[in-house]
Specification:
- By secondary structure, the chain is an alpha+beta fold.
- The chain has 4 domains: about 140 residues, 2-Layer Sandwich (Beta-Lactamase); about 90 residues, Beta-Lactamase, CATH 3.30.450; about 70 residues; about 160 residues, Heat Shock Protein 90 (2-Layer Sandwich), CATH 3.30.565.
- The chain is built from 12 helices and 18 strands.
- It has a 6-stranded antiparallel beta sheet, with helices on both faces. A 5-stranded antiparallel beta sheet has the order 8-7-11-10-9, sandwiched between helices.
- A hairpin with a 4-residue loop joins strand 7 and strand 8.
- About 35% of the residues are buried.
Length: about 500
C-alpha cells in the first residue's frame, strides 16, 4: 500500500511544507478519532492531469489517510486509503474544501441502511485549505449523554476549530510514539489558569496511583502536590509538552499537555495521562542487566590482565630461553582475549567492532618486533561488528598470524644471504586484509618475507602457534584456512587466508 507521501506525490501538487503539515496531522489524529468516537478520513483534491488542463470529468478527491476510533465500533469497514472519488459524490467535502467552512450533514450508510452524521472540517495551512478532515459518526444517542462523552465531544470541537484555523497540528510537535499517552489512558481538561475542569475515570485511577484521593476539580496540579511546570509552560507558550512526573519513587506518570487555542488565544488544555510505572521498571531492569553484563566483562578483562601480568613477571624470572619464550607467548594470547572483553565492557551488546581489536593486535605485534629489519604492518578493509563468540577466537588467530610473521618471516639472515633473495626488501611489509565475501568473513595476512620452507603443510605443522590457529579456525570458527608461499614473481613471502561463516556457530 502506498504511503501518504507517495499518494500525495502521484495525485497532488502539495508543497513539501504542506505535506509535512498533513503528515503531522496523520501522526496525531488518533486523539481526534477517540475524542469524537468517530472514523476519520483525510481527503485532498487531485491535481488534473497535465495533458488535460481543462478536464471534462468532475474534479476528484483522493483519500490520504484513515483512522478508526479505539472506543467505538468502526463505521467504515473498507480500507479507503488511495481511493479517488468524484467531488459530486462527496458534495459536502467538496463544499467544505471550496468554502473553507465546517460543513455538517449526513450520508446514507450502505450497511446500516440509514443516514449517519458526517462532519467535514477544512484543514488549513496558513491561509490555504489544502485538505478536508471527514468525520463519520454514529447517529446521536437519544437522551442525555454522560459527562465524559459531552466533555470529549467538546474538546474535539475545539481541536476541530484549531484544525480549521491552521493551529493544529502544532508546527513543532513530533509525531507521537507508541509510548505516548492516548485518550483511553486518561484525560484531564484544565482552563486557561490551569484549574481542573474534568478528569476521566482512567485519569482518576492515575491520580489514585499517585496517592491523590481528593477531588481534583477546581484545583491546579500544584494544589494536588503534582509538578505543574510543564502545564504552566504549555499554557503560557501555547505549545504542547510531554513530561514524566514521579509522584513517589514507585509511581511514574507520563503527561502530554495539549493547549487548546481559539484564534491564537489559549483557552485551556487537554492533558493525557499514562501510568508508565511498569514500563519504566522494565527499562530500569534492562539498564541494570546491561550494567551487570558490562561489569562481568570488565571483571573478566581485569582478571585476564592480572594473569597476563603474572605470566610476564614469571617470564622475567625464568633463565631458560625456551621457557621464557613460551611464557611470553602465553601472556600475549591472554592479552588478545582480554581485548575482546575490554570492548564488551563498554557495550553490553553481543556485537564487537572488530576494527578496534585489529588496531590493538597490530600494536602488540609491532611492539614485539625483534628483527633488525624494519617491519611495517598495514590493514585494509573492515569486518564490521562481529559476534563475541567469533571475535574472541578470531582475535587470537589474527594475533598468532601477525606474531608468526614478525618473528619468522624477517629473521636476520646470514651475511650475503640477501644477494640470493632478490625479493628481500629493505623494509618488511605485513598486509592484513579484512572483507566479506559470499557470506563469509575473510581475513588475509600477507608478508613479503622469506616465505615457507619447501614441503610445508599447515595440517602437519608442529608449531604451537600455527597449531592453535588451525584448531581455532576448524573447531570454534567452523571455517577454513589456507597457507601458501607467494611466488617470487609476485614479490615472494607468505599468504594466509582464513574464511569464517558470517553466522556465528552455536
Amino acid at each position: 500500500m502506498p504511503t501518504p507521501a507517495e499518494l500525495a506525490q502521484s495525485h497532488t501538487e502539495l508543497r513539501p511544507e504542506e505535506l509535512g503539515h498533513l503528515q503531522r496531522l496523520l501522526g496525531s489524529w488518533s486523539v481526534l478519532a477517540d475524542l469524537s468516537f468517530s472514523d476519520l478520513l483525510l481527503v485532498v483534491p487531485v491535481t488534473p492531469d497535465e495533458g488535460h488542463p481543462t478536464p471534462t470529468e468532475d474534479p476528484e478527491l483522493v483519500v490520504l489517510g484513515q483512522m478508526r476510533p479505539n472506543n467505538r465500533p468502526t463505521l467504515v469497514d473498507q480500507d479507503l486509503v488511495g481511493q479517488t472519488i468524484n467531488e459530486t459524490q462527496w458534495d459536502l467535502a467538496s463544499k467544505c474544501l471550496h468554502t473553507g467552512e465546517i460543513v455538517r450533514g449526513s450520508i446514507h450508510h450502505p450497511v446500516l441502511g440509514e443516514q449517519v452524521p458526517v462532519e467535514n472540517i477544512p484543514v488549513r495551512f496558513g491561509d490555504v485549505v489544502i485538505a478536508v478532515l471527514l468525520r463519520v459518526s454514529l447517529a446521536p444517542l437519544k437522551g442525555p449523554t454522560s459527562m465524559y462523552e459531552r466533555t470529549y465531544l467538546d474538546v474535539f470541537e475545539r481541536l476541530a476549530d484549531m484544525v480549521a484555523q491552521s493551529a493544529f497540528p502544532y508546527p513543532d510537535e513530533d509525531v507521537g510514539t507508541e509510548e505516548a499517552p492516548r485518550v483511553g489512558d486518561g484525560v484531564v481538561v484544565v482552563d486557561a489558569d490551569g484549574r481542573v475542569e474534568f478528569a476521566s475515570p482512567n485519569a482518576m485511577n492515575a491520580f489514585h496511583r499517585m496517592g491523590i484521593y481528593a477531588p481534583p476539580e477546581g484545583r491546579r496540579f500544584g494544589d494536588l502536590d503534582i509538578e505543574e511546570t510543564a502545564i504552566e509552560w504549555a499554557l503560557t507558550n501555547g505549545r504542547p509538552v510531554v513530561e514524566e512526573v514521579e509522584r513517589r519513587p514507585d509511581v511514574i506518570v507520563l503527561l502530554h499537555c495539549i493547549p487548546l487555542l481559539s484564534h491564537g488565544v489559549v483557552t485551556g488544555a487537554m492533558i493525557l495521562l499514562r501510568d508508565v510505572t511498569d514500563v519504566r521498571r522494565l527499562d530500569r531492569l534492562l539498564l541494570s542487566k546491561d550494567a551487570a553484563i558490562r561489569e562481568v566483562h570488565h571483571r573478566v578483562k581485569n582478571n585476564l590482565q592480572t594473569i597476563s601480568s603474572l605470566l610476564s613477571l614469571q617470564a622475567r624470572r625464568v633463565d631458560e630461553r625456551a621457557a621464557r619464550i613460551a611464557l611470553q607467548e602465553a601472556e600475549r594470547r591472554v592479552r588478545s582475549i582480554s581485548l575482546v572483553h575490554e570492548i564488551l565492557s563498554r557495550d553490553p551488546s553481543d556485537q564487537v567492532p572488530f576494527a578496534e581489536i585489529v588496531v590493538s593486535l597490530v600494536q602488540m605485534a609491532e611492539d614485539s618486533v625483534v628483527s633488525s629489519q624494519p617491519i611495517v604492518i598495514t590493514t585494509n578493509g573492515d569486518l564490521g561488528d562481529v559476534t563475541a563468540d567469533v571475535a574472541t577466537p578470531l582475535a587470537v588467530t589474527l594475533a598468532e598470524l601477525l606474531q608468526n610473521a614478525v618473528e619468522h618471516a624477517f629473521d636476520v639472515e646470514p651475511a650475503g644471504a640477501h644477494e640470493t633473495s632478490p625479493h628481500k626488501a629493505e623494509v618488511g611489509h605485513v598486509d592484513v586484509t579484512l572483507s566479506h565475501q559470499d557470506g563469509e568473513l575473510v581475513v588475509a595476512v600477507r608478508d613479503d618475507g622469506r616465505g615457507l620452507p619447501e614441503g610445508f603443510d599447515i595440517e602437519k605443522t608442529t608449531s604451537l602457534g600455527l597449531s592453535i590457529v588451525r584448531d581455532l579456525v576448524a573447531s570454534q570458527l567452523e571455517g577454513r584456512i589456507a597457507m601458501e608461499a607467494v611466488p617470487a614473481a609476485e614479490g615472494g613471502g607468505t599468504r594466509v587466508v582464513i574464511s569464517v561463516p558470517v553466522r556465528a556457530p552455536r
